[in-house]
Write a structure and sequence with these properties.
Elements (H helix, E strand, L loop, with lengths): L4 E10 L6 E5 L12 E4 L2 E11 L3 E6 L5 H4 L6 E5 L13 H4 L3 E4 L4 E9 L6 E5 L5 E5 L5 E5 L4 E4 L7
Parallel strand pairs: 7-12
Antiparallel strand pairs: 1-2, 1-6, 2-5, 3-4, 4-5, 7-8, 8-9, 9-10, 11-12
């Protein structure tokens, strides 16, 4: 991903015959999908011509220049990229997902668990996907009794491992 950019969604598949895309929205900033804004897909910036929000964090998106089912067929799985700048400041203790990805994850016992690779959005709470140096994956629920501290300047997330998380 280019510096100064953030993934704000992922294309699930085409929807209908007019080039509409069904997308998973990954942004807490609702203005990301405003008509007239630009999103980058496969390295090309395209203007949003229509967006309809759907339940469960999904939406139907139309982008300039993509006006047929054939034009969007190969885009499934592609990321929707936007500039970082427009994101508003969050209250203390809240973070955008892009700020967390890449941080080191350490237990309150001093054990290095690995690097946060991805944030999965679930219905109840987010789940942090942490990968160790050996490639082992740990899934951590992003809840207060597990995630104890996020220190962006230090590049670290402090967690408390409860039974069953290993």
């Amino acid at each position: 991903m280019p510096d100064g950019a953030v993934a704000v969604g992922r294309i699930i598949r085409g929807h209908g015959n007019d080039g509409t895309l069904r997308v998973q929205c990954l942004s807490d900033n609702p203005s990301r999908f405003r008509v007239g804004n630009n999103l980058t897909v496969t390295g090309k910036s395209r203007a949003i011509t229509d967006f309809r929000e759907l339940p469960g964090g999904y939406g139907l998106l139309q982008l300039d220049g993509l006006e047929s089912a054939d034009a969007v067929r190969s885009l499934a799985g592609q990321w929707l990229i936007a500039p970082v700048d427009p994101a508003p400041d969050l209250p203390p203790g809240e973070y955008y997902h892009y700020q967390l990805v890449g941080l080191n994850v350490v237990t309150d016992q001093g054990e290095q668990l690995g690097t946060l690779q991805e944030v999965l959005i679930t219905g109840s709470n987010d789940v942090y996907v942490v990968t160790s140096d050996t490639g082992k994956e740990i899934l951590l629920p992003a809840v207060a009794h597990v995630v104890k501290d996020v220190d962006l300047p230090a590049g670290r997330i402090l967690v408390h491992l409860i039974d069953g998380l290993r």
